[in-house]
Amino acid sequence: MFIQPLAPVGHSLLLSFIVAACPILVTLFLMGVLRRPAWQSSLGGLVVGLVIAIGLWGLPPALAVASITNGVVFSLLPVMWIALCALLLFNVAVHNGRFDAFRGWIIRHVPNDRRIILIVLGFCFSAALEGVAGFGTPVAITSALLIMLGFLALDALTYVLIFNSAPVAFGGLGIPVTVLGSITGLPPDVLGATIGRQLTPFACLIPFYVMALYGGWRSVRQMWPILLVAGGSFALTLLVISGAGLYSLSNVLSSSVSLIASIVFLRFWQPAPDPEYAIDLSQINAEKHASTASVPLWQGWIPWVTVIAVVIAWDALHIARIGALPVHWPGLDNAVFISLYKSVYAAVWKFEPLGTGTAILVSAILSAVFTRTTLGQFGAAIATTLRQAWLAVVTVALTIGLAFLMNYSGMTYTLGYAVSSTGMFFPLISVFLGWVAVFLTGSDTSGNALFGNLQVAAAHQLSLDPVLFASANSSGGVMGKMISPQNITTGVSVTSLKGHEGVVLARTFKHSLFLTFCMGVLVVIQQFVLR
């Protein structure tokens, strides 16, 4: 059995921390500085991680290969299966004209102002998609819609990635909170309520933050009523629902209330017309295909209402459990001892043929049936999805392969142990543990599984609130979602920026760091002021 070392580099925790961070730093450097495509950056990080894991951490090559392959398979099912099916739903809507109809409905019922569109779609609509799909698909779908409405591709991606933060902790019907509870042994409803309180101010302020980036303070002054309605209704619903113990419905209900409240509010209030932010409707009308011009605009909602309804019903009926099979990974399961937790490291891949991805696939098929999509259109949607997503599949496989390698070698636990050893500074920087984990895996669920216990152990050692810091792992992790190679790569898959993920990372990185630091300050206040 391989025993993970915590400080193998010169028996120094500081030196080991620096070396363990190298795969992450290499990936960030290649993407953000050299502007290399995400797959090349992830491959570079994986190669560096493999050399360090075997050469310095002493991980046997067979275990290194087994951990990487385990990560690659996990990246395919469930991660990319969910993303692929969500992209298929999107492309079915594009090919049968319902995406154009949805765009037309937005244009007709929302004021002709790109700032309003950004809030309604980039924040409210994207959050609803995050609640049922996640894994970058809300970014891809919403960005594509914003681009069709006149946004620059880089702007659309950047702002949607920043918006795609607060909803993440309760995405997939609250799975990240459920996993955090099972890992730490803490009540998930209590964790959900704490996470809700941590994210409430950010949910309310994020629309103001993004509007300041997009249109400056002048736009914030002009748009503050709708910013307050969108962010405030989301935040208030999140606070109430998560506080009531219904964390699994927090994101779906919050985003739905925010979307409905914003659209209804815009029936009574509209900003003064501003030609600088007006959509060029003549150009959009010229782009319409004659074959889709007769599609009723209300049918543009069919794909999205269908997927939300199916996924909620799927979860309520526990359909994902049917045929589920735990697969103990050969050569890796119980072959590693986690020194930090003093426990054996299991390697169990959960095979779920009827998981969330399949629910979204069923939604795509039902949507096609409801809209009388032809077999030719459906086949074209499949071909388009494969063409768009194959590079994202490769990138995500490399990224999660690196994450699993770092986990089983012990490099990730060295990073976590070093951070948890910072004593009085730990309350401020604990959120960066979740941030690192979500950067690597692209999943708040995986980040909670990785560092949830570490946060609790460190809190006990420092006489801090374990519930607060377990929750901080999840809340800090959501801020790392906007720089995750997996999230960015899936997001750019339907835009002209494919292969330019580094440009997107360079735009979002500083905002990710800033918002994570702000979350750390909030955790300090919760621990030392509000208790």
From TrEMBL:
The keyword Membrane applies. Pfam families: Lactate_perm. It is a multi-pass membrane protein. It is found in: Cell inner membrane; Cell membrane. It comes from the Bacteria. The keyword Glycosyltransferase does not apply. Keywords: Cell inner membrane, Cell membrane, Membrane, Transmembrane, Transmembrane helix, Transport. InterPro entries: Lactate_perm (IPR003804). The chain crosses the membrane at residues 12-34, 46-66, 72-94, 115-133, 139-161, 168-187, 199-217, 224-246, 359-383, 389-408, 415-440, 512-530. Uptake of L-lactate across the membrane. Can also transport D-lactate and glycolate. Belongs to the lactate permease family. This is L-lactate permease.
